[in-house]
C-alpha cells in the first residue's frame, strides 16, 4: 500500500521485517488488557486461538459479570468456565483470532506500524481478513442473552487493503460507549443503521457471534491452543 518515506532508503536495515508479531508475547493468562485510551477483554477458548473484545465499555463489563473498578487481569483456570466466558464475549462482537501472535500483528497494522506495513507489502504476512478488520457492535434485545433477538452494526476500517470504502466507521461511532443499558445501546445502534436478527443462528455477517458451534479452524490456518499456565 505504501512504504514509509524513511524506509525507502535501500540501506535501511529490514532485519525485523515480518517479526513484529513475535514481540511482546505473554503467557496465555490475560483477561483485561489496558492501553493508553481503551481496554480490551481477552478470552482463551479450548478450541484454540484468542478471543478479543476491543474498546470494552462499562456496559460490556457488566454484561460479562466483571468488576469494572477492579478488573480481573487473569483468565479462569477452569477451561469449561473459560469457554462459557468466550461464548458471552463473542455475543458482544469480539473477534476470534488464530493466535495471540496474529492478534498482535493485526493490531500493529491498525496502528500503521512501519514494520507491519512492510511485512504486508513484502508478502511476509497475510493481510487482515474481513473478520479481523471489521468494527462491530452488538446489542441484545432483552439485555441478557440473544433469545429475543439482537441488533448488529458492522463497518469497514481503514486498515491496509481497504475493501469497503463506502462502509467506513462513522465519525460518531464513539457514542456507543455512552450507553448505560442494553436498551440504550439498542437505540444507539438502530440509529447507526444496525441490522436486526431474530436469533443468533440467523446472523450472517462477518463477525464471530455464532461461530462457537461450528468453528474448527482459524482464519488463516489452525487455531493455536494456549492452555492455562500458572504465573
Radius of gyration: 18 Å
What's the total helix number? 6
Distance between the termini: 40 Å
Count all strands and give the number. 7
What is the number of domains?
A: 1
Strand content: 5-15%
General shape = globular
- What structural class do you assign from the helix and strand content? alpha+beta
> Spatial order of the strands in the main sheet?
1-2-3-4
The overall pLDDT, averaged over residues, is 87
Query: Segments where pLDDT lies below 50 for 5+ residues?
Result: 1-25
Order of helices and strands: EEEHHEHHHEEHE
**Helicity range of the residues?**
10-25%
Largest sheet: 4 strands, antiparallel
Keywords:
single chain, 231 residues, alpha+beta, 4-stranded antiparallel β-sheet, 3-stranded antiparallel β-sheet, 6 helices, 13% strand, globular
What does this entry look like structurally?
It is a single chain. The protein is an alpha+beta fold. The chain has six helices and seven strands; from the N terminus they run βββααβαααββαβ. It has helices spanning 58-64, 79-91, 100-110, 114-121, 130-133, 182-191; strands spanning 32-34, 39-43, 50-53, 95-97, 135-140, 150-155, 195-197. The chain has a four-stranded antiparallel beta sheet with strand order 1-2-3-4. The chain is globular, with a radius of gyration of 18 Å. The N and C termini lie far apart (40 Å).
Summed up:
By secondary structure, the chain is an alpha+beta fold. It has six helices and seven strands.
Give the topology, please.
Blueprint (H helix, E strand, L loop, with lengths): L31 E3 L4 E5 L6 E4 L4 H7 L14 H13 L3 E3 L2 H11 L3 H8 L8 H4 L1 E6 L9 E6 L26 H10 L3 E3 L34
Antiparallel strand pairs: 1-2, 2-3, 3-4, 5-6, 6-7
Helix pairs in contact: 3-4
Amino acid at each position: 500500500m505504501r512504504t514509509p518515506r524513511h524506509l525507502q532508503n535501500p540501506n535501511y536495515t529490514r532485519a525485523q521485517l515480518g517479526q513484529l508479531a513475535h514481540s511482546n508475547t505473554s503467557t496465555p493468562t490475560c483477561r483485561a488488557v489496558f492501553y493508553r485510551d481503551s481496554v480490551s477483554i481477552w478470552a482463551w477458548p479450548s478450541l484454540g486461538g484468542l478471543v478479543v473484545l476491543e474498546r470494552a465499555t462499562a456496559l460490556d463489563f457488566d454484561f460479562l459479570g466483571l468488576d469494572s473498578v477492579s478488573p480481573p487481569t487473569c483468565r479462569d483456570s477452569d477451561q469449561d468456565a473459560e469457554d462459557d466466558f468466550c461464548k458471552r464475549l463473542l455475543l458482544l462482537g469480539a473477534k476470534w483470532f488464530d493466535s495471540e501472535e496474529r492478534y498482535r500483528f493485526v493490531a500493529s497494522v491498525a496502528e500503521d506500524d512501519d514494520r507491519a506495513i512492510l511485512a504486508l507489502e513484502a508478502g511476509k504476512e497475510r493481510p487482515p481478513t474481513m473478520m479481523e478488520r471489521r468494527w462491530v457492535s452488538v446489542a441484545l434485545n432483552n439485555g441478557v442473552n440473544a433469545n429475543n433477538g439482537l441488533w448488529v452494526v458492522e463497518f469497514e476500517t481503514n486498515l491496509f487493503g481497504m475493501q469497503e470504502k463506502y462502509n467506513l466507521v462513522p465519525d460518531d461511532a464513539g457514542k456507543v460507549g455512552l450507553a448505560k443499558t442494553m436498551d440504550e445501546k439498542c437505540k444507539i445502534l438502530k440509529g447507526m443503521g444496525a441490522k436486526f436478527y431474530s436469533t443468533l443462528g440467523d446472523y450472517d455477517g462477518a463477525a464471530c457471534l455464532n461461530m462457537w458451534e461450528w468453528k474448527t479452524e482459524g482464519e488463516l490456518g489452525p487455531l493455536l491452543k494456549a492452555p492455562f499456565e500458572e504465573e
